[in-house]
Design a protein that fits this description.
This protein has about 160 residues and is α/β, with parallel strands linked by helices. The chain has four helices and seven strands; from the N terminus they run βββαβαβαββα. Helices cover about 20% and strands about 25% of the residues. A seven-stranded mixed beta sheet has the order 3-1-2-4-5-6-7.
């Protein structure tokens, strides 16, 4: 399946916990002031690549603890994002995902993708709430959500490094 990406980082230590393969999706409609990745905004920019090529790269690195879907906006390419997340889960890797949506407003057709995500960093970047001391996010309105616990308890459960 083809996916439009802005880039790949085969070993990232800043896009989630552990050693991660970060996939930067191309396309975002939010255009947040102060966005860290404004080059990902254009819906027709970036590069088209087959998800199988990305999965093959992920398989080659036995040191990875997970993948991170980031952006741009991964939920603009739900099927391709889910294919990557599902493949990662099948390899025993965890999946983190950054989105401008809040958990409560995720697209209704994203249920399968949500099931394959372990930690969701939700909420649009808000420059008025920017905080450089936050772990894995840029503004105080963004949450690190433990998706499995949230779905099981039917309420938002935040991820924590200890026991997270």
């Amino acid at each position: 399946m083809l996916i439009r990406i802005a880039g790949l980082v085969p070993e990232s230590f800043v896009d989630g916990d552990g050693i991660r393969f970060a996939i930067f999706m191309q396309g975002c409609l939010r255009r947040c002031e102060g966005c860290h990745n404004p080059e990902t905004h254009s819906l027709d920019g970036g590069t088209l690549i087959d998800t199988e090529k990305i999965i093959a790269e992920i398989k080659r690195n036995k040191l990875l603890t997970g993948i991170t879907l980031t952006g741009g906006e991964p939920f603009l390419q739900i099927d391709a994002s889910n294919e990557l997340a599902s493949a990662a889960k099948n390899l025993g890797l965890n999946v983190w995902c950054y989105t401008g949506y809040t958990f409560e407003t995720l697209p209704v057709d994203a249920a399968q993708l949500i099931e394959n995500i372990d930690v969701l960093i939700d909420g649009a970047f808000d420059i008025t709430q920017r905080d450089l001391d936050l772990q894995f996010r840029g503004s105080r309105n963004q949450r690190l959500i433990d998706v499995k616990k949230t779905l099981a308890q039917n309420k938002i459960v935040l991820w924590s490094e200890i026991g997270g």
